[in-house]
């Protein structure tokens, strides 16, 4: 039996024992006690916490955690584990130390190209829980975003189906839906695609000029894009509103401070995304003063009117 095979079997054997001696293992593996001692030293060097105990009932035991036998992960499986553990880096997480240890071990043994792939995944995927229903095109679109390839999609808009080539910045989940901000070569502008409206997607391997999204990620794209059809966001926020905006995945990118120390939201936003931005700003209520765009103010005024109308019969009593 080769040494590697023997070490694997030895690891499995001592994991199943509370305590063991060199003689017991030597008999089990039909080798000398000196050979077993050398094998144990090899396992200790690999990080196995083996402790020796002296006395008439002494021997060896594994301290604290037992070590699992070698497990073969594919690069994508390892990247999936790494991404999952990213969500548990808060100081209050009970297994923070173990979580970081797992990440360090996995990342250390990833090949260089797989490390680059993992770093790209961090830039191109953003997940909020609870997750949306499974989306058939999401894996293709995420792969295209990671590799920065153009995708041909069959997209349905208001009963009409159309093919278009898009280059995704990444994909994100929000309120039970998957979305993909992308540059659309048909519109010659940026657009937010709802993935449930994409019926088919395939990476386009034809030679086409791609956009440089190296500095643009799924976490900073709203403040990085330069759309053709945009509206200018300009709003003042008070300290309470500032705290909300700082923790918001979309709004935090537009926070700036004027010379008079006033906190404001400033930037260009997609015209087609204005309804969503209105939704993001609605919880601020009186903690925000919107100067522009007028379309945003009109949406909020309409929502306020609809709410007010529901209470008119009570007010007239």
TrEMBL record:
Query: Signal: is it a keyword of this entry?
Result: no
Q: Which domain of life is it from?
A: Bacteria
- Keywords for the protein's UniProt record, in alphabetical order: Transcription, Transcription regulation
Q: Which PROSITE patterns does this chain map to?
A: HTH_DEOR_2 (PS51000)
- HTH deoR-type domain segment(s): 3-62
Name of the protein in question: WYL domain-containing protein
């Amino acid at each position: 039996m080769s040494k590697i095979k023997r070490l694997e079997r030895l690891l499995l054997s001592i994991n199943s024992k509370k305590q063991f001696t060199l003689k017991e293992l030597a008999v089990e593996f039909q080798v000398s006690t000196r050979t077993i001692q050398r094998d144990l030293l090899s396992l200790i060097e690999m990080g196995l916490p083996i402790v020796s105990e002296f006395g008439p009932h002494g021997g060896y035991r594994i301290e604290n955690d037992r070590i699992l036998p070698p497990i073969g992960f594919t690069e994508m499986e390892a990247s999936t584990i790494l991404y999952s553990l990213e969500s548990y880096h808060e100081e209050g997480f009970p297994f923070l130390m173990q979580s970081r240890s797992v990440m360090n071990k996995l990342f250390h043994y990833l090949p260089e190209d797989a490390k680059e792939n993992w770093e790209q995944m961090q830039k191109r995927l953003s997940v909020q829980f609870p997750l949306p229903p499974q989306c058939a095109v999401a894996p293709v679109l995420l792969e295209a975003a990671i590799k920065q390839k153009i995708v041909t999609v069959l997209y349905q808009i208001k009963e009409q189906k159309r093919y278009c080539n898009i280059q995704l910045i990444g994909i994100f989940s929000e309120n039970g839906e998957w979305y993909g901000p992308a540059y659309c070569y048909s519109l010659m502008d940026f657009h937010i695609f709802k993935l449930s409206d994409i019926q088919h997607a395939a990476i386009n391997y034809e030679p086409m000029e791609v956009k440089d999204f190296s500095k643009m990620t799924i976490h900073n794209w709203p403040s990085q894009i330069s759309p053709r059809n945009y509206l200018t966001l300009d709003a003042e926020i008070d300290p309470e509103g500032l705290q909300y905006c700082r923790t918001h995945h979309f709004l935090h990118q537009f926070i700036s401070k004027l010379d008079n120390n006033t906190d404001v939201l400033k930037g260009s936003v997609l015209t087609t995304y204005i309804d969503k931005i209105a939704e993001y700003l609605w919880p601020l209520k009186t903690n925000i003063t919107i100067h522009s765009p007028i379309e945003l103010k009109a949406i909020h005024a309409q929502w306020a009117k609809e709410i007010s109308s529901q209470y008119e019969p009570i007010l007239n009593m």
